[in-house]
TrEMBL record:
<feature type="signal peptide">
    <location>
        <begin position="1"/>
        <end position="26"/>
    </location>
</feature>
<dbReference type="Pfam" id="PF00497">
    <property type="entry name" value="SBP_bac_3"/>
</dbReference>
<feature type="domain" description="Solute-binding protein family 3/N-terminal">
    <location>
        <begin position="66"/>
        <end position="295"/>
    </location>
</feature>
<dbReference type="InterPro" id="IPR001638">
    <property type="entry name" value="Solute-binding_3/MltF_N"/>
</dbReference>
<keyword id="KW-0732">Signal</keyword>
<protein>
    <submittedName>
        <fullName>ABC transporter substrate-binding protein</fullName>
    </submittedName>
</protein>
Length: 308
């Protein structure tokens, strides 16, 4: 995301104009504060530590006994706060499991999305797990260890009362989270193309909200006609609004999420090995099943697997 572009990469969605399909990307941003790893992980069997992977840890991390993991807890079901204010979600459970596999404890801290990668490079955090899409641009400054796959999805009110065409979003009121790639794409790609085609632009370059929950509420309340977000986030919002929303069109431009690690750090192969171990012992599948995001499962983890 300034962009959860910084969460995501370009996703094909939006107005088909002048013979070309515009592209959008999935992502997110926002929120601050800190917390220890969520109690939600208690529902997941604790994985055993793997000595060969723990041996890969940098000495300072190993001696500290913990992994400091940054997340922007405003992007349910990937990372968010429960009713008690605990940090929960797929990424939180995976962070706990990765740390346990490495013989450590996870200290998951809530942070503004745009501060996470700078925090990694400044050694404030060891890992960033906040629905970051693995991109070549990101790989230029940090390592990305793949663990999930997501695309961009759109949602509208149930029944699509405004007859929104997913292939033509010009002039539509679109809600997005502040700092997301979706927000950037409305401003930098969709609206310029709409102008070129002589069509009305998306008002305000999209209605931007700091929290994804506010994006969803804007659509439910009818203040906006469409919302754009990462596919698991849209799927979860549809479930949580009890039939008030529906998905619009297909999920597009699927790409891997990556755990953010300092460039060239020995933590990168350690984390990749931990994810591989969690895939093998069933913990990975259990976590994805718990949060209803099993459609995004990948079969293997790699370091720096971006294709664009």
């Amino acid at each position: 995301m300034s962009t959860r572009t910084r969460r995501s990469r370009l996703c094909a969605l939006g107005a088909v104009i002048a013979g070309g399909t515009l592209v959008l990307s999935a992502c997110s941003s926002s929120s601050s504060g800190s917390s220890s790893a969520s109690s939600a992980a208690s529902a997941i069997k604790t994985p055993s530590a793997v000595a060969s992977l723990a041996a890969l840890l940098p000495p300072d991390v190993k001696s500290s006994g913990k992994l400091v993991v940054a997340t922007d807890a405003s992007y349910a079901p990937n990372e968010f706060k429960d009713a008690q204010g605990n940090l929960v979600g797929m990424d939180v459970d995976l962070a706990n499991a990765i740390a346990q596999t490495l013989g450590l404890k996870a200290d998951v801290q809530n942070a503004d999305f745009t501060s996470i990668i700078p925090g990694i490079t400044a050694n404030k955090y060891q890992l960033g797990m906040s629905s970051f899409t693995d991109t070549k641009d990101r790989e230029a400054t940090v390592d990305m260890v793949t663990y999930f796959s997501a695309g961009t999805s759109a949602a509208v009110k149930a029944g699509n009362p405004d007859n929104i065409d997913p292939n033509n979003l010009c002039g539509k009121k679109i809600a997005v989270q502040t700092g997301t790639t979706q927000a950037d794409e409305i401003k930098n790609v969709i609206n310029p193309a709409c102008v070129k085609a002589g069509k009305p632009t998306v008002p305000n370059d999209g209605d931007k909200f700091d929290l994804q929950t506010d994006v969803t509420q804007a659509l439910v309340a009818g203040r906006d006609q469409v919302m754009l977000a990462d596919s698991p986030v849209v799927d979860y919002a549809i479930q949580q609004t009890n039939g008030q929303l529906q998905k619009l069109g297909a999920t597009t431009d699927t790409a891997p999420y990556g755990v953010v690690v300092a460039k060239g750090s020995p933590l990168s192969p350690a984390v990749q090995g931990a994810i591989t171990s969690l895939m093998a012992d069933g913990t990975y599948k259990s976590i994805l099943d718990k949060w209803g995001v099993q459609a995004g499962a990948i079969s293997s983890s790699v370091v720096n697997g971006a294709t664009s």
